[in-house]
Design goal:
The complex is a heterodimer of chains A (115) and B (113). The radius of gyration of chain A is 13 Å and the shape is globular. Chain A is mainly β and 115 residues long. The radius of gyration of chain B is 14 Å and the shape is globular. The chains are: A mainly beta (115), B mainly beta (113). Chains A and B meet through strand 5 and strand 10 of A and strand 5, strand 9 and strand 10 of B.
Chain lengths: 115, 113
């Protein structure tokens, strides 16, 4: 089955720790994205990647880092510099980046809580 | 900053009725529009995309687009309790923002048996 997987489903972090969220897709999509969702707010774009070894900051990249070493994988690291990391993190992918018909599909999400 | 506005709801309809969800957007150059359904605690699921003015039907769902009015809507016919969810409107940016989806905050729909 083609799809997007994220792990872990739930993650608890202590203050000052870096944590890495996994995102893998087997849809053969070129573009991948990370969003965060907070209660009562729309999804906000953290980082996106159009192709392997290339990624760009989204609207709220501060305190986050990513890598794109393989087409299938786009891990997100939440660093200790992120002041308010508790949120629902969503990974998405699409065939391409620009263009009209590049629908984005989402993984199941990781819920991060800072203790 | 380009914006996408939705009524937050909750929108409550009886089972079997038509639910109408509305969305307005500020980026006049946008060409691609999407509706996602998000159940509580779950991730968004794409249910409709629309690119041309007019109506697009898929089963019980109809998306309507009016680019001149910068307005997109989703109609759900014969609403079922399983349709109870938050519906997110997403708009693809234009020009230098054409990589980006901007999401509304969502409308919570409750279908009462």
């Amino acid at each position: 089955d083609g799809g997007i997987t994220q792990s872990p489903k739930y993650l608890f972090r202590k203050e000052g720790q870096n944590v890495t969220l996994s995102c893998e897709q087997n849809l053969n999509h070129d573009a991948m994205y990370w969003y965060r969702q907070d209660p009562g707010q729309g999804l906000r774009l953290i980082y996106y990647s159009q192709i392997v070894n290339d990624f760009q900051k989204g609207d709220i990249a501060e305190g986050y880092s990513v890598s794109r070493e393989k087409k299938e994988s786009f891990p997100l690291t939440v660093t200790s510099a992120q002041k308010n990391p508790t949120a629902f993190y969503l990974c998405a992918s699409s065939r391409g980046l620009a263009g009209s018909h590049n629908e984005q599909f989402f993984g199941p999400g990781t819920r991060l809580t800072v203790l | 900053q380009k914006e996408v506005e939705q009524n937050s709801g909750p929108l409550s309809v009886p089972e079997g009725a038509i639910a109408s969800l509305n969305c307005t957007y500020s980026d006049r150059g946008s060409q691609s529009f999407f509706w996602y359904r998000q159940y509580s605690g779950k991730s968004p699921e794409l249910i409709m995309s629309i690119y041309s003015n007019g109506d697009k039907e898929d089963g019980r769902f109809t998306a309507q687009l009016n680019k001149a009015s910068q307005y997109v809507s989703l109609l759900i016919r014969d609403s079922q309790p399983s349709d109870s969810a938050t519906y997110l409107c997403a708009v693809k940016g234009s020009g230098g923002s054409n990589y980006k989806l901007t999401f509304g905050k969502g409308t919570l729909l409750t279908v009462n048996p």
